Amino acid sequence: MSAPTIDERDLRVESGAVGVNHDRIDGPSKISGKAQYVGDLNVPGMLYGKVFRSQIAHGRITRLDVSIAEAMDGVVAVLVGSDLTDIDPFYGHAIRDRPIVALDRVRFVGEPIAAVAAKTMAQAEAAAKSIIVEFEVLPVAADLDTALAADAPIIHDGKTAAGFAHGLGNLPDRDGNICYSYSLNTGDLGSVTSADNIVVDHEYIFPAVYQYSMETHAVIAEHTGTEIRLWANCQHPFLVQSEIATLFNLPISSVRINVPYLGGGFGSKSYTKMEPIAAALARKAMRPVRIVNEVSESMVTTRRHNMKCRMVTTAKSDGELVSRDVQIWLDTGAYADNGPRVTATAGDAATGPYRWQATQVRAHCVYTNTAPSGSYRAFGATHLQWVGESQVDEIARRAGLDPLEMRRRNLLRRGEVVRVNGKPLDADLIGDIEKVAASLGWGEERKQNRGKGISVGLLAAGAHPVSMASVRMDATAGVSVLVGSTEMGQGTRTVMAQIAAQVLTVPMSTVSVPEADTRFTPYDRSTGASRSTTVAGKAVERAALAVLALLLETAGQIFGVADVSNLDVVDGSITDGKLSKTFSQIIKKRFGFVGGELIGHGEVKPEGGSGSYEEGPVFWEVCIAGAEVEVDKNTGVIKIIRTSSVADVGQAINPAQVERQDEGATLQGIGNALFEEILYSSEGDLLNDSLLDYRIPTILDMPETMNCIIVENGDGPGPFGSKGCGEGALAAIPAAIVNALGDIGIEMYELPLTPERVWKRIQEIQEIQKSK
Amino acid sequence: MSEPVEKFLCVVNGKQQIMEVPDNTLLLDWIRTDLGLTGTKQSCEVQVCGVCTVLVDGVPVSGCTTLAYEARNSNVMTIEGIRGTAFYQRAEEIFMRHSAVQCGFCSPGFILTVFTLVNAGRKLTEHEIKQALHGNLCRCTGYKSIFEAAIEVINSEVGLGK
Which chain A positions have a beta carbon within 8 Å of B138's beta carbon? Predict the structure, then answer.
């Protein structure tokens, strides 16, 4: 990735597609219910699949009897572990630790043991219920403390098998139940200590959280013997394609994945999820099979890591930050999923964007007998920002500094080192936080029981910078953009259309962006890490520029101009100042009849390195927000009065969509901060596996005022100076809420901030004050 | 299957349908699987999220917790039946203008709830509208745009209460 070249900028023509609130191109079909999701699709001959899951958290399978199920009406196939002896059935992009179905052992409640394919859903469900399984029960480690104890049951044996896309450099072997550790040190902690320093030292707890994309995980699989077809609601079709190909010993191109609309993703559909079991079941049934999870099943398919953290921050008595020492333990559940990456990103976020004399970060990814944890929007940053920012505020209070002034003094400035050998800071954080503070009425007279908080953080964004795109222009100058970014609600198809329309100076109505189909859509690393607009969008821009170059080539011949830079491109025509030819006239001239097409290819690849995380990120996503809250001290109930967030996007391609991203992330941040929490028993039973018991924000949880400030400094590596957004507010809002509570003397060290927890803390603080 | 199956009539979106399903079939499954009307979605299955909202004789119900049998001999309206109405055209235009749609999974359910509120014919305050919409979840938008769009639709149809 690099900034656009001068040539690219010069070719741009003001057609008004970028920076404008164009209607979503998928809006009407979604509002009217015409838009189809995987669960709405039918494939000829399709069967219905149902997964049979473990009811215990840890045990060896001593008996598995599916004979009753196999004999039941409508049942075509029952998949069990012994069907997988001809392949290596383990997958996992980070650590290859997970079998397609349990082979001899289960490690969490909900782990797939078998799967049924039947002619109707009712038949599949009935057959799954008839499966008999018996276990030799093993000791359970259902939480971090148990899993880290000296006598902990060890959840995985043998050597660590690295996955194909872990991006973590060397992956050392497990250490007990710790499957991965990340460390980051600068300076010498020992030499910067001083007796005069302010020291803040606490332990923090962050809960397990369910992403709840309203559409659950769903996949249709078909295995023809030589080819696998999938219709899957996956965020990263090309990574899934690669992993499925490896599992079933096929060339990558013999796996074809179509991705229709996703009913939300938020990271829950990143990497491989239900695709392997669906493909294996279809292989056995020799017919297409559709599996659609129930919510209780998606909750055990992936979740956000719960975390324990110990942080020590020191500062001089005037508030100048000196050092930070952080230990992090993230509960990745029974299988690593994206845990190692979450751990590294959490480590990166731990020190915050501040100037330090010395830092030490040790982050650990820990196996437990609970459902696997993976990606959820702003992972790592959400885990750590509230911890680090509440310590910065505590220091400010003890130093007698306003939190805003504290940040002005200590925040990194553009160009300063964020992480050694990585990308320097590429944003104006002080400018951003001042805008948030202003919008909150910072410094105005305090109202009773109301506090205000601000928070600042960075999130390593962009993932691996590899994306390709094709832009095709037909004989009528209609444009198709083929790009692998999956549409999960974030509006990527609209944004890609705007980028192409802007470059080609054509109306939005002539640009279409079909779904990703790995057979025809060029490779795109993934949809996540706020990378689509920045990385895939850059590939689209380049592909559109390649089409424009073809048009100019033919136009040059028409006008008899050798140097096409003398030609202007205006509203779908090319002119030499005297004559003007429309694109379709030019295409007709090129091919000699009304036909043919122009195809442009765009590629983004690492420049001047391997594109690794250590060298990156592609850009630092800014995580800045503020909140004003009101606390009922008699009940511990928190009301969010207003929030304010910054979308520091370089250039907004579609400002309304940017605002919607921040508003959505804000509500998720409120849920994460105030009440969302997956609960496990000590035996590893998931206690709140439905939306009745696991509450997400409703419209009644909306703050009275929700403000998104778009900052456009043109400093992103994406098209038109753009950079990604949509995750920052989720990391920043819980931290802002915690700091707003701290502002009225209620310092909290555990999320979510349930009324009970807040009320107890208020009593505790009152006791401490009385005893003084 | 050997379960006894009775036949019932049911009018869906103005068209007479024969309901011929096992008596434990959910209304949602009958609509989506047997009739192929997939604009009605399935998510929480416990009457919390609102994506399976359909109207039975004008009353909004959750298809996930209603038996098809309970809708026998009645008029069922789904998003597919509302699509062609003048109400829908205005609502879509307003929802689009507020960019009150992202992944779209919740959108038909919100439209049906707003349709019900408009059909009641009574002026509603913003507070009442918010209360009425809290049975529809959205994980993408943060609700603000949906709330503003719903207020505008209801105001344009029946006016707002004070």
Answer: 214, 699
